[in-house]
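Have a close read of the entry that follows and walk me through the local backbone shapes. See right below:
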Amino acid sequence: MKHFLLLALLVLVAAPETARAQLMLPGALQAMPEAGLPSSDPAGPAAGKAKLADLKPPGEETILGRELAHDGLAGSIAFRHDANKLLEITRLTIPGEAISHPGEPCRVDVVSQAPISAKFSGRPAGVSRYEVEIEACPFSFEVLEEAVLITRIPQTCDFAAADCRADPTGLWGPAGSSIGSDQEKLLERDRGRAEASMRARFHTLLASVGKDKNAVKKIAGEQAGFSSLREVTCRNYAREDVHGFCALRITQARALALQAAFAGYTKDQAGSTARSTAKHSAKSVYKPESKPNAGVPPATPPISEVQH
């Protein structure tokens, strides 16, 4: 169930690609009507306002040379660029529990000798996504600022030789104990900005679908479920109730996913309009009758056209 909710977080917003934001992460929906449904004015506060400035997805440099921990508590993952500036994993230790003794903690050191390549697979949910091919435990992750969000199906991986069932899914970021009071204040300020940015992009996306009731219902429903999905993702992050690091990063990812969904929708609409215009123009083009071949008499006119 935990994995289903985490995966749903990444695909909250549908866009042209098969996978959508996807991601996609407290108080995200305080300004919304009950049940997450929009008011009679679906555009909300976005109506009549200037176009929002584009958000930039976090770059790989924010995770390079850092030791990121699962839920800010256990395990370790580290990244670097190879000689060709491609991302690779240099350290991966996944926490879990013993297969033979459930409940007994264990860990698996996946990277021991050679680094593991991470293959870039686009930005379907607005942030960079990578695929990691590990025989016993393949997974994908999305790059957030100073963190990565890992997903896989099924959620756990069995490492029989190590007698360990490991679970890599969730947010990997700085140790919760390493976030000091000064940084906590900055994170609190940034959370307010991220919430405002997310809401603005939600209203922009909602306004873009106009009177399409099915689209409005889908978008509003996804946004209404966002807070609970974020809570599930972040509830086990170390000292999350103090610093809110996980909630901030997931909210920022949600804003980027909404932005990507809006871009995908407007692109589809523009393409549909262009195809419709081209089809209409083709029907309107005047096509003169071709001249009869030399030496061949014209066809006999209809009886109604014969002059008497």
